[in-house]
Amino acid sequence: MQTECDIALVGSWVLDPRRTTITFETKAMWILKVKGTLSAVEGHGSVAPDGSVTGSLTADMRSVNTRIAKRDSHLRSIDFFDVEHNPTMTFTLLSARVFLPRAFLNGTLEIRSCIQRVELDAAVTVSDDTLTMDVETQLDRRNWGISLAKGPGKASSMHSFIRAQATFTRI
What we know:
By secondary structure, the protein is mainly beta. It has one domain: Lipid/polyisoprenoid-binding, YceI-like (Lipocalin). Helices cover 8% and strands 58% of the residues. It has two helices and nine strands. Strands 1, 2, 3, 4, 5, 6, 7, 8 and 9 form a nine-stranded antiparallel sheet that branches. It is elongated, with a radius of gyration of 17 Å. It starts with a helix and ends with a strand.
């Protein structure tokens, strides 16, 4: 049996890029903290009455912004995101377990044409026509081939902290 909270999620949703933020924090040379942003460009989702879900969120990797132009150009280069050949990063939702105000999302994350499974824990806020998901996670960049360090013992900490606050409107 569905609860009122479950019923509130049923329907189709489209991303509002203007009300969506994606931030990241990582370390350069294992010491220097680097913070930046990415722009979400599109996304959608749907929740069926039986609880099945579909959805995706795509970010523009060309929008990477750390407030240092030279570093941003390097991040866009083949050394990191290779935006010429891989202009987007996409999370595709495969399944979810929802226990409002939380949702556990299972999906894939594609970066640099490399697809890896990820599990995300999201805080969910829903009203009549707006759904906001706030996700924080830590990713090992090496899983997507993003590392300049080569050889054994190199890149002992290649983790990046990612936070996405995505707002969707009912359609």
